[in-house]
Design brief:
Distance between the termini: 40 Å
Number of strands: 9
Helix content: 40-55%
Radius of gyration: 29 Å
Strand content: 5-15%
Number of helices: 9
Order of helices and strands: HEEEEEHEHHHHHEEHHE
Length: 345
């Protein structure tokens, strides 16, 4: 036996990458986040949709001006996409831009890495405490299921003996006995296989005491994270769970859970800075402007419906226009204020 060419962690990362099919699209390269994005509600993988170039979207019949569709790079639920192709409805249309995910992921890796470098002993203690809690919950559940399966296996043995006695006494035909015995054997084999799988998971949890050390070694490989490369994504990221966006507050708020390799979803204990009075005032004015735009758009749509119902052609309707000053204020403030995104690490 000779020493491996690569360490076990690198080998496992490489095997995960090989299992995921990453198709090369019109950009000439695959998105490294593919295979790590999952929708939290249905558990399905998320598909990547990219359009690198601007394309014509709409031409105003009155002015002749053509509006272009902006380049896009988003992830959406595969369950919804596959159902839509079959003219069926399953799950919901939810999506998140690749840009937003990359920003969240890079910020998470940076924050956790800084915390690890500055608080190594505290980090090790927190990971071990979280691991113990998770292990206790999962191990108890697995052991309970193993005991249940073992009891059922013993019950099948008893049923097999009774069936054999009935066959020997002539109360059960040979053909019927063979059918029942085959069914008992298949069920026992399935239960034993399930027990073996559960026991392997228990052994892995109970033997897992190097998660924190492995992540610390990974962090020490990098002195800085100027950008999010494919190598960093694969070495640090286990999976990313995306939840349905919530617009009930008038803003698009979306929860994203990022699970890192070795340590899972890790919360860095930091205090979020409180917004200043100027920031609160700017946010209030932006909310008021958005509310005015919603009212205006709703009124315009109602007017369109009314005219269509009365036989007015759509091309005869005036193009909706916001007040020029409102339009300018909205564009300036939206560039400065991004929609908040709740994240869990």
């Amino acid at each position: 036996m000779h020493e491996g060419i690569v360490d076990s962690d690198t080998w496992e990362t490489a095997q995960k990458c090989r299992k995921t099919i990453r198709r090369i699209d019109s950009l000439g390269k695959a998105n490294p986040l593919t295979g790590k994005m999952f929708y939290a509600d249905c558990g399905a993988r998320m598909y990547n949709h990219r359009k690198p170039n601007s394309t014509p979207h709409y031409t105003n019949p009155n002015t002749g001006k053509t509006y272009m569709r902006s380049p896009s790079d988003v992830y959406s639920c595969s369950t919804f996409d596959n159902a839509k192709q079959k003219f069926a409805k399953s799950c919901t249309l939810h999506h998140i831009s690749t840009k937003a995910v990359r920003e969240l992921l890079l910020d998470t890796i940076r924050r956790v890495s800084v915390y690890v470098r500055n608080n190594e002993e505290e980090f090790i203690q927190r990971v071990r405490e979280a691991s113990i809690i998770q292990q206790d919950k999962i191990v108890k559940s697995h052991k309970k299921q193993i005991a249940k399966n073992t009891k059922h296996i013993a019950e099948l043995d008893l049923l097999f003996r009774k069936t054999y006695e009935d066959n020997a006494m002539g109360r059960l035909s040979d053909e019927r006995f063979q059918q029942l015995s085959d069914g008992f054997e298949v069920e026992q084999w399935r239960l034993k296989q399930h027990n073996d799988e559960l026991q392997i998971e228990i052994d892995n949890y109970e033997a897992d005491s190097v998660k924190a050390d492995s992540f610390i070694s990974l962090v020490k490989k990098y002195t800085d994270f100027p950008e999010l490369s494919a190598v960093i994504i694969n070495e640090f990221t286990d999976r990313i769970l995306v939840y349905e966006a919530d617009k009930s507050s008038g803003k698009r708020v979306q929860r994203v859970d990022i699970y890192l390799n070795f340590i899972g979803a890790f919360d860095v204990p930091i205090e979020e800075p409180k917004p200043t009075a100027e920031e609160l005032e700017a946010e209030r004015k932006l909310d008021e402007l958005r509310a005015k735009r919603r009212v205006y758009n709703n009124r315009y749509i109602s007017n369109v419906k009314h005219r269509v119902e009365n036989g007015v052609l759509l091309q005869d309707l005036p193009t909706p226009q916001l007040d020029p000053q409102q339009q300018k204020n909205l564009q300036n403030k939206e560039q400065k204020t991004k929609a908040p995104t709740e994240r869990t690490k």
